[in-house]
From TrEMBL:
Keyword Ribonucleoprotein: yes
Annotated SUPFAM superfamilies: Zn-binding ribosomal proteins (SSF57829)
InterPro entries in the record: Ribosomal_bL33 (IPR001705), Ribosomal_bL33_CS (IPR018264), Ribosomal_bL33_sf (IPR038584), Ribosomal_zn-bd (IPR011332)
Protein name listed in UniProt: Large ribosomal subunit protein bL33
Lineage: Bacteria, Bacillati, Actinomycetota, Actinomycetes, Glycomycetales
HAMAP family, per the entry: Ribosomal_bL33 (MF_00294)
PANTHER family registered for this protein in UniProt: 54S RIBOSOMAL PROTEIN L39, MITOCHONDRIAL, LARGE RIBOSOMAL SUBUNIT PROTEIN BL33M
Any single GO CC term annotated in Swiss-Prot or TrEMBL for this entry: ribosome
UniProtKB keywords: Ribonucleoprotein, Ribosomal protein
Family listed: Belongs to the bacterial ribosomal protein bL33 family.
Amino acid sequence: MAKRGTDVRPVIRMVSTAGTGYTYVTKKNRRNTPDRLVLRKYDPVVRRHVDFKESR
């Protein structure tokens, strides 16, 4: 089994900035993107694209 704590590609949770509580789960490369990730994705609760920020 892979180690989650010190993995190069950890599993992260993306939380909607619209305040709906909708989340996506993805992986990111820690070496290439050490900062928190922000992606523009679809939120089906508000039916539009909003920013999703990485939560820890």
